[in-house]
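Teaching note: in complex prediction, the entire set of molecules is handled at once rather than each chain in isolation. The prompt given to students was simply: 'Predict the structure of this complex.' The entities are:
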Amino acid sequence: MPEGLEAEIYRRALERCAGRTVDTVDVDSRQGEAEAITSLVPGRRVVSVRRHGKLVLIDLEPALVLGLHFGMTGRVVVDGAAPIGKLEYGSGRDDPAWDRLTVRFADEGAFRVNDPRRWARFTLDPTLDQLGPDFMSLRPRQWSALLGSRRSPVKVVLLDQQAIAGFGNLCADEVLWQAGIAPMRPANSLSDDEVAALAHAARRHLSAMLRRGGSHRGAISPAVRAALPSCPRDGAALRRDTVGGRTTVWCTGHQR
Ligand SMILES: [Zn+2]
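The expected output is the structure of the full assembly:
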């Protein structure tokens, strides 16, 4: 957390900054590019706000891109309002001491990234070379190529940002549950029909979760993960296992 869906919610909130010119920037001095950001970003105008996976990209004019990585607990506050009040597993507090980046605009308003754990990172002209295609715009043929060439458990591939950018733990478990695929299956063992089911589940359920408010709004929600009731689809036992070092909840009945 935040996963790609939360980054998309932040991106949409930040879009209201388009057209504004940056006046001043405060950035945590421990950030690697702090000096460059404070000297190069002021005076530039926000043209557009994009997202790739969990990374939000603010296009500035004259040409410069400010990349926002939210780490484990980074939240965006735009003009005093937080599009996500409290992150799942995060703090609901908004302590000014946790502001790692504040961008103030010349005419009005500001946005900031508030991060209690200080893993958020800010970079200029970030390269996307290390990121796979975005998880919300992947085509069925790309799914086949990605999974067919990898022997790792399918969940590990979903979480590998170099393979597919955007999945976090909650969205990966949700999509596998919706598609009926066991998370520890080798990715290249999936049949064509199973790959198609996974592509369909991602396309349909990621956008539904986004509409409902984020990656915690799936059938395999944090409440379900904590209580492990019977499977909401077939009543079979839900299990909690570790796959690729991550806590994984899945159904022993319909996920095969
Ligand atoms: Zn089930």
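Point out the following to students. The chain has two domains: 4-124, 140-251. The domain at 140-251 is CATH 1.10.8.50 (Helicase, Ruva Protein; domain 3).
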